Amino acid sequence: MNKVIIDCDPGIDDSLAIMLALNSPEIEVVGITIVAGNSPVELGFKNAKKVLSFLNRLDVPVYAGADRPRVRDYVNALDTHGEDGLGESFLPDIEGQEIPEKSAVSFMRETLKTGDVSVIALGPLTNLARLIDEDLDAFLSIKRLVSMGGNFRSHGNCSPVAEYNYWEDPDSARLVFDTLYEHQGRIEMVGLDVTREIVLTPDILQEMKRVNPKVGDFVEKITWFYFKFHWEWEHIRGCVINDPLAVAQFLNPAILNGFEAFTQVETGGISLGQTVVDSMGFYRKESNAIIYTDVDKTTFWEMFLTRILEIELAQCKEIFAKYIY
Ligand code: BDR
Ligand code: CA
To answer: Is residue 168 in contact with ligand 1, taking CB distance under 6 Å?
Structure first.
């Protein structure tokens, strides 16, 4: 069984990613660690508990981590994710769920040392940078590190060149990429080039509600705000759901394709947070990242929908084939 820590900032699409992960029998989510990102860390903690409660999985431990980026001031993304960080669904808080004393980084230190635990990072990389500061060996013991963040050819979503997770805390992202370079490690970068292809449309949502009303209604509650945001900003009908693609790639490495390259994160000036991907080998440096550029959308959607709706593949194809190519 693949053991995984999900490091995240829920967040609408983080929540969908948690739903996919916990409906996937190949992995065991040993813990969820929260980082300040879309939502302040306390709110992210509460939102993770709401999702776990919906899934009847409050047995999965949740730990709170960094409440601000490494160097810069914290800027939340509640304009995108709603004032409650969950699309203004205003789901009630789960009673009796206090933030544990053990921090996210302490939990990571203990858990990663075994060498058989992977991390799927769906928010800013602040917790991982703190782990590097506190226990480099534990960081280097991560079995597989998949991060939703960055962009190669795509434009950014926070500036012309930067994606939110790395823009929010560029100094931590820089440290993670640089440390991997120094120690011949690799990060799998599931960036906007591929996640922009994953659009949850009103048609898909409507069928989801019909096939599994409980799950469909929950997804509608948390995504509707995101739909409105995407229409106002980009004139997209639907919403880009970035984070579940990182989980899907962890589960099935054939979903994404890309190339390896030396990559560094910019920490200043107008390109703050940009991932500079040396795709042509100008710097003659060993690669520290796998940069994904192509996505098999059908395979992603089939995995996502069969698992979160708990339906068979044949039924999924019959209902959704016309919407998911
Ligand atoms: C990333 O930023 C957040 O808004 C999403 O949760 C995702 O992790 C996309 O840029
Ligand atoms: Ca996220």
So the answer is: no
Nearest one of 240, 79, 256 to 156, comparing CA atoms: 240
Could you read off the pLDDT of 29-64 as tens digits, one per residue? 999 999 999 999 999 999 999 999 999 999 999 999
**What's the CA-to-centroid distance between 149 and ligand 1, angstroms?**
7
The phi, psi pair for 14, rounded to 5°, reads -60, -40
Class of domain 2-199+241-296 as given by CATH: alpha beta
- CA nearest 51: which of 244, 188, 185? 244
Predicted structure pTM score:
0.98
Helix (H, G, I), strand (E, B) or coil at 193: helix
Looking at residue 61, its amino acid is: P
d(CA 41, CA 47): 10
Say which DSSP state 267 is in. -
Task: Quote the CA–CA distance of 124 and 147 in Å, as a whole number.
Answer: 9
Q: Which ligand is nearest to the CA of 157?
A: 1
* Pocket flag, ligand 1, residue 164 (CB < 6 Å): yes
Within a 10 A sphere around the Cβ of 26, how many other Cβ atoms? Answer: 11
CB of 242 within 6 A of ligand 1: the answer is yes
For residue 148 and ligand 1, the question of a CB distance below 6 A is answered with yes
pLDDT tens digit sequence for 133-158: 999 999 999 999 999 999 999 999 99
Q: What is the pLDDT of residues 195-231, one digit of tens each?
A: 999 999 999 999 999 999 999 999 999 999 999 888 8
| Domain range summary for the chain, segments of one domain joined by + | 2-199+241-296
By most ligand atoms within 8 Å of CB, the mutation choice from 14, 20, 38 for ligand 1 is 38
Query: Most distant CA pair in the chain: distance in Å?
Result: 55
